[in-house]
Amino acid sequence: MIERYTRPEMGRTWSQENKLDKWLEVEIAVCQAWADQGVIPREAMEKIRHARYDIQRMAEYEREMHHDLLAFLRSVADSLGEESRYIHLGLTSYDVEDTALGLLLKQSAELLERDVAELIDVLQERALEHKDTLMMGRTHGIHAEPITFGLKLALWLDEMRRHARRLAAAKAEVSVGKISGAVGSHATVPPALEEAVCSGLGLEVAPVSTQIVQRDRHAHFIATLAIIAASLEKFATEIRHLQRTEVAEVAEPFAAGQTGSSAMPHKRNPEKCERISGLARLFRGYTTAALENVALWHERDLTDSAPERIILPDACILLDYVLDLFTTIMRGLDVFPERMRENLESTYGVIFSQRVLLALVEKGLKRQDAYKLAQRNAMRAWKERSPYLDALYEDAEVLEHISREELAALFDYGYFVRFVDESFRRIGLASTPEKERMKR
Questions:
Q1: Rounded CA gap, 383 and 350, in Å?
Q2: Max alpha carbon distance in the chain (Å)?
Q3: What is the secondary structure of 380-415 as a DSSP string?
């Protein structure tokens, strides 16, 4: 099941082979640090650098020993002779496993950063493309006042930029190692060796540790991935609504030969966005498990080990998949400006009610009185399915305060979107002359 959602790079990152490669990389780095201190002879180090493991033999050993890292060490020892006595010198299992995990999480975070950057680029391009594409803004699912589709996408873009910063911070939190011994006291491995090993691996040192790197770091990382997934679910839910038959303002890509229903050939369902909404739910469960992994007994227990063997690879693999899928959706999203205009005009102009309210207030009416005048005519237009402006023209009490010409001037879509350019400038976007020319 997982492989269906795995892109090659992220899949390789969380493969068994890559995990074991990282274990071996840590073990060799520790040996090198001991050699630099004169503990391991130079000639022994030459052979240790070429140490290997055998997955098949390791599996056999693990069935006997019931300990994956000890089975790994035994397999590595098979590739060495007397030099094997220097492997794992002064270490506990999680000196290796947690330091290697820091490498895996850093590698995964870098792939996710690439995914986020790619989505940001697509959102930016499409936001500029539709900066002036008028559409209905909705609150509570009900027509409110006009916006532009580009403004909606600019909001998503700004949100994804925040996620890029969050992901960078979360990556830094988990890109750490520890080589501090059985309870973190450095009794068998000096702090200087720990610093040398982590520096050589491109990791920061956990300043203080127990037998493990503390799991608040991993909880922060998983929570960050869950927040990103929540935003993707929000974006996907919006597209699902806008693709509904009664709205029909956008539609996710639909390939030649694609089908939407086994029974109804006409169906074009937002199935990709629905998939994103469904998968996003998993991240909340991962976050719960990651938070519960923080509280361990004393210098460690094993209750975190089993769940994080699932939640860490799954969260990284699924977010990689969902980011790629949503980027594909946004790149090929069909947008229907004509339908957006039809929907704008489908409510008989009642969306201008606030403009009428404010104009009456400017004429000297109390707000409560102006609200009643604007509202009763809006309700009449809605009930009778007739133009709001006509209802206002026929209301003598309204015309006592404002002329027909002044009323007509209020019904201008441009009023609602006159500051869209400013919003774009705030996030560092502006249409180029070429884009403006193409738009015209």
A1: 11
A2: 104
A3: HHHHHT--HHHHHHT-HHHHTTS-HHHHHHH--GGG
401 is known as an active-site residue = no
Q: Which amino acid is at 286?
A: Y
308 and 174, same structural domain? yes
Find the catalytic residue in 140, 262, 266, 298. 140
From 15, 67, 185, 261, active-site residue: 261
Q: At 114, is the pLDDT very low, low, confident or very high (cuts 50, 70, 90)?
A: very high
Identify the band that residue 270 occupies on the pLDDT scale cut at 50, 70 and 90.
confident
CB atoms within 10 A of CB 132: 17
Q: Which residue has the tokens 């009456």?
A: 360
Total domains present in the chain: 3
- Check pLDDT > 90 for residue 249: yes
Concerning whether 261 is annotated as a catalytic residue, the answer is yes
Q: Sorting pLDDT into bands at 50, 70 and 90, what band is 243? A: very high
Nearest to 354 by CA among 338, 374, 373, 337: 374
Domain with residue 16: its CATH number is 1.10.275.10
State the pTM of this model: 0.93
Residues 57 and 155 in one domain: no
- Residues 357, 335: one domain? no
For the chain, the first-to-last Cα distance in angstroms comes to 48
